[in-house]
Design goal:
purine biosynthesis, phosphoribosylglycinamide formyltransferase activity, alpha/beta, Phosphoribosylglycinamide formyltransferase, binds glycinamide ribonucleotide
Length: 222
């Protein structure tokens, strides 16, 4: 008998190219997961249409319909609980989440962030890397904790900043690596090879990582 596939929920606020990369990996047979729901805070998010096209159930919650962030977040997680998801992926979900609301999901919730964390938490990461004159830039996938973009980093992709790069070019070039990084990390989770060791360490195959895994030629290496 084959093992049941991991049930995954995805939250996204925008165009959804990372969601699309996950769906492509699943369809290619390299990512053994089922997507049980895609949620968004933006009714027009491209991610919702991509999910519908892939026959994944969707929902939208409008923050304006809630008295405060905390009420929104508790309703969000009520929906995610109801979906039966075991793991939650933030794929361009552009909201800060209440620490108490997310607490039950710590250890089974990951986020893709366009910087080499701990550098450049928050917004405008590409611009900040360029302004700092950095030689390299990158993306990180990390476990989500109450600290914004502060949870333990699982894996990173690094790219060189080229002379003449502007913010858009850099973002676009990095995105293609995000599309490899996120499915690769989710695959490790689906294979039950990754753990968050409280409070802030990552273990691969039961061994603590001293540094994040690195994406090289499409594969994650220690
Ligand atoms: C991605 O670059 C992702 O790393 C970033 O938003 C973009 C979403 O693109 N996430 C964050 O900045 C989270 N702090 P997508 O909608 O095409 O996947």
């Amino acid at each position: 008998m084959t093992a049941p596939r991991l049930r995954v929920a995805v939250l996204a606020s925008g165009r959804g190219s990372n969601l699309q990369a996950l769906i492509v990996a699943r369809d290619a047979g390299v990512l053994p997961v089922d997507f049980v729901v895609v949620g968004s805070d933006k009714p027009n998010a491209g991610a919702l249409q991509l999910a519908k096209d892939a026959c994944i159930p969707t929902f939208t919650l409008n923050p304006k319909d809630f008295a405060n962030r905390r009420d929104f977040d508790f309703e969000l997680f009520r929906r995610l609980d109801a979906s039966g998801a075991q793991v939650l992926v933030l794929a361009g979900f552009m909201r800060i989440i209440d620490g108490e609301a997310l607490a039950p999901w710590v250890g089974r919730m990951i986020n893709v962030h366009p910087s080499l964390l701990p550098k450049y938490r928050g917004l405008h990461t590409h611009r900040r890397a360029l302004e700092a004159g950095d030689a390299e830039h990158g993306a990180s996938v990390h476990y989500v904790t109450a600290e914004l973009d502060g949870g333990p980093v699982i894996a990173q992709a690094r790219i060189a900043i080229q002379p003449g790069d502007d913010e858009g070019q850099l973002a676009q070039r990095l995105l293609t690596f995000e599309h490899q990084l996120l499915p690769a990390v989710l695959k490790l989770i689906a294979e039950q090879r990754l753990d968050l060791i409280a409070p802030n360490r990552v273990a691969l195959d039961g061994k603590l990582l001293d540094t994040p895994l690195q994406l090289r030629h499409g594969a994650l290496v220690d």
